[in-house]
Amino acid sequence: MAAGGGAGGKAGGRLQVRKAAKGGWTPAKRAAFLEHLAATCNIAASARAVGMAPRGAHALKARDAVFAADWAGAIEAAYETLEARLLAYALGDAEGEAKAESEAEADGVVDGDAEAELRGAHFDPRVAVQALGFRKRGGGSSGGAGAGTLCKRVSLAELEAVLVARLDALDAQAASVTGDA
Question: DSSP assignment of 81-126, as one string?
Answer without folding.
Answer: HHHHHHHHHHTTTHHHHHHHHHHHHHHT--TT-HHHHHHTTT--HH
